[in-house]
Amino acid sequence: MPQASHAWRLALAFREQCVDEVPREPHDLPIHEGLNDAGTFFVTTEHP
């Protein structure tokens, strides 16, 4: 599924860009990421 791998690379690049721009603090909420039931990539600070 080339579309899925392309979307995954875009999501990873977007995440890396965001991580670079936002300073990390030790008390920051943990980041959970993965695929939801519909197969959509997500990044959230809430428990899935």
From TrEMBL:
Enzyme class (EC, first level): ligase
One GO molecular-function entry: 5-formyltetrahydrofolate cyclo-ligase activity
Keywords: Ligase
Record keyword Ligase present: yes
InterPro entries hit by this protein: NagB/RpiA_transferase-like
Keyword Ligase: yes
Record EC number: 6.3.3.2
Record's protein name: 5-formyltetrahydrofolate cyclo-ligase
Natural source organism: mine drainage metagenome
